[in-house]
Design goal:
CATH topology of the largest domain: TIM Barrel
CATH architecture of the largest domain: Alpha-Beta Barrel
Strand content: 25-35%
Structural class: alpha+beta
Radius of gyration: 30 Å
Helix content: 10-25%
Number of domains: 4
Oligomer: single chain
CATH class of the largest domain: Alpha Beta
CATH superfamily of the largest domain: Glycosidases
């Protein structure tokens, strides 16, 4: 008996080891249906998480939530500019620790898709290329150019070798099962002519020659040469077909939402549409799709590109910027993944067979001689629900939805019917302890430093004419000073009575501050979608010497398009002074200019807060070009932390020396274009569903908890256009209410889709769960079984309601972290016979 127990224990231990190392593989190939891992075709679900857009302290939790959400693969780009900021000098520390990130994914039992590029786009500064690449003699990016190919191959080989040294490829037993070379080149390759074709062939051969032992892909590249798999990116990829019948149908970017830009509304994508797109892809022969993004994260430092991309890269992803699951998006997609996996055996065993069930109605069946059968029923119409006959049964199909039948009979999920709970997160203002003086004035906690106007450094550059900014600064700073002077004699027309002097400036943007004799006379930013500035500014000149100082600035460099590296910035001219009465015009463009790269405060390392030059007297508010510093104690708890910059203009902020990115709450989006409700039915595009019209695109800025300590934290702000730092406040993101609204007509939970343990057909179930393991459901805010109306946070009773529903739900849920309630008259009684009923619950976690 003892031997039997010991044998059982050893089997348990062995099975446990197998489970925790399930990523470990020895062979990854592909055929026309799927990726083949150790000889077995797989149906796979992937999600993008970019390691530098979060912190190492967040990675394990993000990866676990991805696994809990039903993912098999984590996909990430490799960011060349982060890892090789100086040619030949590599950095893999902190948020750049790629090896640690890949190992954590593997330890969680997930695979990795490594998108090396090394061009990434990603709304990332300069598309991920380091700026030094721009200065390599004779270089032309992303074409058949020897200097570029040499650098691209060197970096790609470096990354591949780093992965091999750590045994991270699937061929070595590691988690990496796919790699990508280049990125969306097919969108712009026509601009490069015949050199594009030879470049793509070279890139493919170069990648394959690195012998990773796993397949390579190229996204949006219809002519990707064998054995490279060409893949699809987009909001929908169900109609995509690979360029060879020997390659599987893969979807590398299913856009979960869209990125946001300063001065624009915030896009979002309804989960019903996203789920529809996913189900349609697998219905029509797809076997791997990836959410871009599954967690978007934050553009810390100067990593955002565009230009004008916001600091937040939330992307309306299933896991939000702060690492909190976005419900019902995360939960509903989890249910979709479960339903798809129930079909896996049939999906990989055969090819799909399509049949029409009527206009805009399609059935797809995967059926084998051995008895495996799975089916998808789709209503791709945008207006009308439909009743269809399939396999001898009748099915209701809402418009723009897919029903999934793992046994070709029973519906386990319809993409338009959400069984997952919703959450209402909220930002809670926090009291922050400052070291106030006896006056109690919060301004007394701040010190400041006025950035000098014009040239203030000893290291300058004097050149005749106007220099382009990026070529001058190499993006070492967002800022470049242009300074010149002019002598005005008495009696010249520029000084005559009745004549207004005008300073004319033309710039490639992205912003401009103009000064005459040290006085600010104008601030201008490039219009949305147009990176050029052309302004005429009234100016007052004095007899004698007059100084013209122009501070040009960038807000992230271009990251997309053919020849995007040639997009310039800065004051390119002409620059002139003229009298408004048609008199003298003085062209300043070709005369000598003095250039200063960056700000005095940057050279003084003010962002660390350690300089001795901070002033604590005569505190200035609403002044341009001003640095501010204060000390603060972190809010209690572990809830995600953010800074609310309401009251500030534009600039950058640092917490304990680490940049949280650019802020710009002074810039609001247009007043029109947003709606309170977005109809998910019908094709989605990035401007279909918008919010925050007429408001700042971003007011809250993520401060990772790992960046702060309980007390003595340093906050430094560089305010560019003028603001009141005493109005900056701290907030924490918490989950307020959790809600669920489930109808009697919903399919039962995917885990119970056939029958329960008694053999009785299962019923739809409403499930609630507090997001944190140390929380329980403390109260029930609303309950209605019958015909409830509204949405989470604004539910209302309908004409039909059960009077005992409140008591039943309270008994089942209060005091527990989670609860499940059957949605049926067997649970609540029948308050209105013959009426289709549903259960709506809003609960509070505490």
């Amino acid at each position: 008996m003892g031997k039997r127990i010991m044998l059982l224990l050893l089997m348990v231990v062995f099975l446990g080891v197998v489970t925790t190392t399930s990523f470990a593989v020895n062979n990854v190939t592909y055929d026309h249906r799927a990726l083949v891992i150790d000889g077995k075709r797989r149906v796979l679900v992937s999600g993008s998480i970019h390691y530098p857009r979060s912190t190492p302290e967040m990675w394990a939790d993000l990866i676990q939530k991805s696994k809990d959400g039903g993912l098999d693969i984590i996909e990430t780009y490799i960011f060349w500019d982060l890892h090789e900021p100086v040619q030949g000098q590599y950095d893999f520390s902190g948020r750049k620790d790629l090896v640690k990130f890949v190992k954590l994914v593997g330890e969680a039992g997930l695979y990795v898709h490594l998108r090396i590029g090394p061009y990434v786009c990603a709304e990332w500064n300069y598309g991920g290329f380091p700026l030094w690449l721009h200065f390599v003699p004779g270089i032309k990016f992303r074409t058949d150019n020897k200097p570029f190919k040499e650098e691209m191959q060197r970096f790609t080989a470096y990354i591949v070798d780093l992965m091999k040294k750590n045994n991270l490829y699937g061929s070595q037993g590691g988690p990496i099962i796919l790699s990508q070379i280049e990125n969306e080149y097919g969108n712009i390759d026509s601009a490069y002519g015949s050199a594009a074709k030879s470049y793509i062939k070279w890139a493919a051969n170069m990648a394959v020659s690195l012998d990773t032992g796993v397949p390579w892909v190229m996204c949006q590249q219809a002519d990707a040469p064998d054995p490279i798999i060409n893949t699809c990116n987009g909001f929908y990829c169900d109609q995509f077909t690979p360029n060879s019948n020997q390659k599987p149908k893969l979807w590398t970017e299913n856009w979960s939402g869209w990125f946001s830009a300063f001065g624009s509304p915030i896009p979002y994508r309804p989960v019903e549409d996203l789920a529809f797109a996913v189900a349609r892809f697998y219905q029509r022969g797809g076997t791997m799709q990836n959410y871009y993004m599954y967690h978007g994260g934050t553009n810390f430092d100067h990593t955002s590109g565009g230009p004008f991309i916001t600091t937040t890269y939330d992307y309306d992803a299933p896991i939000d910027e702060y690492g909190i699951v976005r419900q019902p998006k995360w939960g509903h997609l989890k249910d979709v993944h479960k339903a798809i996996k129930l079909c896996e055996a049939a999906l990989v065993a055969t090819d799909p067979v399509y049949s029409s069930l009527g206009p805009n109605l399609e059935a797809t069946m995967y059926k084998t001689d051995s008895g495996l059968c799975a089916a998808f029923l789709a209503n791709v119409g945008t207006q009308s629900d439909a009743t269809v006959k399939f396999n001898g049964n009748s099915y209701q199909l809402p418009a723009w939805s897919v029903s999934i039948l793992p046994d070709c009979k029973n519906v386990v999920l319809n993409t338009a019917k959400i069984n997952s709970m919703a959450m209402l997160p909220k930002f809670i203002p926090q009291s922050v302890k400052y070291n106030l003086d006896s006056s109690g004035d919060i301004a007394s906690t701040w010190s400041w430093f006025r950035e000098p106007v014009g040239i203030s450094k000893t290291k300058t550059l004097v050149k005749p004419g106007l220099l382009e900014q990026i070529n001058t600064t190499a993006d070492k700073s967002d800022y470049l000073w242009y300074s010149s002077s002019i002598i005005i004699k008495y009696g010249e027309s520029l000084l005559q009575n009745g004549s207004q002097t005008v300073l004319h400036v033309e710039s490639l943007g992205h912003g401009l501050h103009a000064f005459i004799n040290g006085k600010l006379i104008a601030t201008r930013f490039a219009p949305t979608g147009n990176h050029k500035i052309s302004v005429d500014i009234p100016a007052t000149l004095n007899p004698g010497k007059n100084t013209v100082d122009l501070l040009s600035l960038t807000v992230g460099l271009a990251n997309y398009g053919a020849f995007y590296e040639l997009a310039g910035a800065g004051v390119t001219g002409p620059v002139s002074l003229r009298s408004s009465n048609g008199g003298l015009t003085l062209d300043l463009s070709s005369q000598p200019w003095t250039y200063q790269i960056g700000l005095k405060g940057e050279d003084l390392d003010l962002s660390s807060g350690s300089s001795s030059l901070w002033d604590s007297s005569s505190f200035p508010k609403n002044q341009p070009l001003t640095w501010y510093k204060t000390l603060f104690d972190a809010p209690d708890g572990n809830d995600p932390l953010a800074l609310d910059f309401t009251g500030m203009g534009k600039g950058e902020a640092w917490v304990n020396g680490q940049s949280i990115g650019r802020y710009w709450p002074a810039l609001s989006s247009p007043d029109s274009g947003c709606t309170d409700y977005c109809n998910y039915k019908g094709p989605y595009k990035s401007n279909k569903c918008l919010k925050k019209c007429g408001k700042p695109s971003q007011e809250l800025y993520h401060v990772p908890r790992s960046w702060v300590k309980p007390s003595g934290n340093v906050l430094v702000v560089f305010e560019e256009i003028g603001g009141d730092p005493t109005k900056i406040s701290f907030t924490t993101k918490q989950v307020g209410s959790i809600c669920s609204h489930v109808s009697e007509s919903h399919p039962p939970p995917v885990d119970m889709w056939n029958t329960d343990q008694t053999g009785k057909k299962s019923v739809p179930t409403l499930s609630l769960e507090c997001p944190s393991s140390n929380q329980v459901i403390s109260s029930i805010k609303f309950v209605s079984f019958g015909t409830p109306q509204g949405s989470c946070g604004s539910y209302a009773h309908g004409t039909c309601r059960s009077l005992q529903a409140q008591k039943i739900v309270q008994k089942a849920c209060v005091g527990a972290r989670s609860c499940n309630i059957g949605v049926s008259v067997a649970t609540f009684g029948d308050p209105c016979i013959g009426v289709k009923k549903s259960l709506a619950v809003e609960a509070i976690c505490g």
